[in-house]
Amino acid sequence: MAERRIRRPRARRHVARESLRRGIYALPSLFTVLNLFFGFWAIVDAVNGRFERAAWLIILAGVLDGLDGRIARMMHATSDFGREYDSLADVVSFGVAPAILTYQWGLRETGRWGWTVAFLFLVAGSIRLARFNVRAQLADRRYFTGLAIPGGAGALTLMVLNDPEPVAHPHAIVAVWIFVLAIAVLMVSSIRYRSFKDFNLRRRWPATALFTLAVIIAAVAVSPVPVMSVLLGAYLLSGPVEAAFRKLRPAAPARPRLPASETDLVPPADSEHP
Asked: Model-level pTM greater than 0.70?
């Protein structure tokens, strides 16, 4: 009887520890589910003509998408299931939702041309996610190869938020069409974009960096859409500009070869030549 009384508390502690571990692994996936929920909600609002709220829902999904990965890494709860599930949610929230939103808002009048370029954006985003999953273990964590799909979705979303009224002018519609196609090309390109995954909040930073971050937060709080548009626009241009600088930068001069000495012309003793 005494042995049974001793073993039961240990068994209960073991079950509790296992359930806690499952709960920790479920927490990042819960953020992914919320990301998917807001992405689906954005699709419903976009179809019903509520463009401004749909755009904000996509941005909220982007915030949740950034949190689930960081929470998983902080809790050491990363898993293959979590990575794949996150990619599937991103296809909906940052592929389907912004494509439908942009089509309903600014491309509907162009007919097949409109839904074709919106579909190309979705295809480019899905290719970008698949390529990231394949190269995740080999790629440099400091850079993305091609524009990440949340960045592409943010570009289309902020375009809508700057003027939520449906686009009617033909020149504006053409501009929207070209912009959507350009974002799709950036996502499938080989241009490198900084990922900021090496940004470590635990290390010591100078006071000026903290002040700069506070200024950015205050600016976003005062005027969110214009400030976020400027920041994202600078990020979109940073990849092509950095790639152009790398191409224009002169290559390091090759070291001159030393003239061959007489000893270099003499074959070694164990050579097959006579």
From this structure: yes
